[in-house]
């Protein structure tokens, strides 16, 4: 609750002066203070010089807005989305245009909200400490925003999502649990179950605990694609790293009918 209160104070300016100050702090191109981290607020250049040269309309934005408007107040523990989702997630040209013109504030809020709801309040506060204390938008927000846009755009862009993640690592930017959860769910929704499973294992290798929505999306994909035996191998690998699925959470997190539900329950719990 302390983490949520701190974030609300930062994102709920009550006076015109505080609105201006918060807008400056949350700007993705604010001038950083001396001796900043090399992985914070650096120019994020998503230049697909090879495969994406023939598709400039969906290339990620080279720069972000200077003075984004703050979104309305929100409750990090509400079941409602922290911010509105794009009306057309497949319209990448429009989404990247909005990133350039409106900035990354909404994406930072979504990341904070996701981390907080998973109980990662310390990580959530660290994220906003960078914004508040250094006046810089963390690079993990920028990279994850582009990754999430590709992940939500549908099966045609699953390679773009993975490529964005690889470029993120190559740039020296460390992902957090929200980043990897977005990648896993996006790949699973595109029926790329093996790739989704790979990043579930990476989460565990990084000592991150995937939430039920994230790991359930991957195992549902294995069932849909009729790759149950591969799913069982993944489960054994994950258990070897200390993972244990929560039956009650799985039952409440999936549709309780149909062959997918029965297949998931059999895969995870032998039922």
Automatic annotation (TrEMBL):
Signal peptide: none annotated. The keyword Transit peptide applies. Residues 58-75 have a biased composition (Pro residues). PPR repeats lie at residues 139-175, 176-210, 211-245. InterPro entries: PPR_rpt (IPR002885), TPR-like_helical_dom_sf (IPR011990). It comes from the Eukaryota. PROSITE patterns: PPR (PS51375). PANTHER family: PENTATRICOPEPTIDE REPEAT-CONTAINING PROTEIN 3, MITOCHONDRIAL. Belongs to the PPR family. P subfamily. This is Pentatricopeptide repeat-containing protein.
């Amino acid at each position: 609750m302390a983490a949520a209160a701190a974030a609300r104070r930062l994102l709920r300016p009550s006076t015109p002066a505080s609105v201006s100050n918060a807008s400056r702090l949350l700007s993705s191109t604010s001038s950083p203070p001396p001796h900043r981290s090399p992985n914070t607020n650096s120019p994020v250049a998503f230049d697909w010089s090879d495969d994406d040269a023939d598709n400039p309309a969906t290339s990620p934005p080279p720069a972000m807005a200077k003075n984004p408007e703050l979104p309305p107040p929100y409750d990090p523990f509400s079941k409602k989305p922290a911010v509105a989702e794009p009306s057309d997630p497949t319209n990448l040209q429009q989404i990247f245009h909005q990133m350039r013109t409106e900035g990354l504030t909404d994406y930072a809020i979504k990341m904070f909200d996701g981390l907080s709801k998973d109980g990662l309040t310390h990580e959530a506060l660290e994220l906003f400490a960078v914004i508040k204390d250094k006046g810089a938008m963390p690079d993990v927000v920028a990279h994850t925003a582009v990754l999430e846009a590709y992940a939500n755009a549908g099966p045609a862009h699953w390679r773009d999502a993975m490529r964005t993640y690889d470029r993120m690592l190559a740039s020296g930017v460390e992902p957090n649990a929200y980043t990897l959860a977005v990648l896993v769910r996006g790949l699973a929704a595109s029926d790329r179950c093996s790739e989704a499973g790979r990043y579930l294992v990476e989460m565990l290798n990084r000592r991150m605990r995937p939430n039920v929505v994230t790991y359930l999306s991957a195992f549902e994909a294995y069932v849909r694609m009729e790759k149950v035996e591969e799913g069982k191998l993944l489960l054994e690998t994950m258990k070897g790293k200390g993972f244990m699925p929560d039956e009650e959470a799985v039952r409440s997190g999936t549709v309780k009918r149909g062959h997918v539900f029965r297949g998931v329950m059999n895969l995870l719990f032998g039922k």
